[in-house]
């Protein structure tokens, strides 16, 4: 079952509360730690993303994506299937509100709260990533707009965000998949998703790795330091048309993606899975 989990002791113990269509109360919460699991049915679909406001205790957002089992049990006439919803809570999850705003895509991957935006709910800025793109809300999640027109549609893989409170800087990063012949890539925004720039991802194998035939790079998971938006990490897969197989590694950048250093690499002796 899909559920939200709460911990009151920094993750040492967890309490599970099963949601149901008849029970709006999902999590009794105050200043708590939350975990989500997407492996079943939940009223409205599967919970695939959760975000907590770093500055306002008890303020949460949950991303709800369509789920096949929900459709089979309750039917698409409920108006949930095929839409992506953001639920919000102001009391640690005891009660939730669902606004009319929806997002496009098949799954909400990530939600981020812009730490430099105004604290008032009606002015809080949020970002959400789906397969269709990056969406932005300027009113605490009530309404959403697509804010990644430059990024190839239907190819978003992951989203990361960092916020420098001292300089009031925000940086967003997305990785995009190979699609329709286009290579995998990394995109960056430094103006709260108003515009995006394509940045060069890692393109060199780590020192000590034997030369390999020309291949393709794939950029998958990406993460940014929450308080240092120029520090980012990305996981990569290099694939060459030879019997050596794929090469897996992780890279770090301290200048917003202008240069990269390998921080984790697979064992080159494991030719098929390293």
TrEMBL record:
GO BP: xyloglucan metabolic process
Name of one Pfam family that matches = BNR
Checking PANTHER family in the record gives: EXO-ALPHA-SIALIDASE, XYLOGLUCANASE (EUROFUNG)
Put simply, this protein is called Sortilin N-terminal domain-containing protein
- The source organism is marine sediment metagenome
């Amino acid at each position: 079952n899909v559920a939200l989990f709460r911990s009151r002791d920094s993750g040492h113990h967890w309490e599970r509360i099963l949601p149901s269509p008849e029970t709006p109360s999902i999590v009794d919460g105050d200043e708590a730690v939350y975990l989500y699991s997407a492996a079943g049915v939940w009223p409205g679909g599967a919970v695939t993303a959760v975000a907590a406001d770093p500055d306002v205790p008890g303020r949460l957002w949950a991303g709800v994506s369509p789920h096949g089992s929900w459709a089979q049990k309750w039917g698409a006439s409920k108006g949930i299937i095929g839409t992506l919803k953001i639920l919000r809570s102001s009391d640690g999850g005891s009660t939730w509100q669902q606004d009319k705003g929806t997002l496009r895509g098949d799954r909400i991957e990530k939600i981020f709260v812009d730490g430099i935006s105004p604290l008032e709910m009606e002015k809080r800025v949020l970002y959400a990533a789906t397969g269709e793109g990056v969406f932005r809300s300027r009113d605490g999640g009530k309404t959403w707009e697509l804010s990644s027109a430059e990024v190839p549609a239907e190819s978003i893989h992951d989203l990361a965000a960092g916020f420098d409170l001292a300089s009031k800087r925000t940086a967003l990063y997305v990785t995009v998949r190979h699609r329709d012949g286009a290579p995998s890539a990394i995109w960056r925004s430094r103006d709260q998703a108003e515009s995006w720039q394509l940045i060069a991802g890692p393109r060199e194998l780590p020192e000590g790795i034997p030369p390999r035939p020309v291949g393709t790079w794939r950029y998958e998971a990406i993460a940014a330091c929450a308080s240092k938006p120029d520090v980012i990490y990305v996981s990569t897969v290099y694939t060459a048309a030879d019997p050596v197989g794929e090469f897996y590694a992780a890279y770090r950048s301290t200048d917003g993606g202008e240069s990269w250093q390998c921080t984790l690499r697979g064992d080159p002796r494991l030719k098929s899975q390293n």
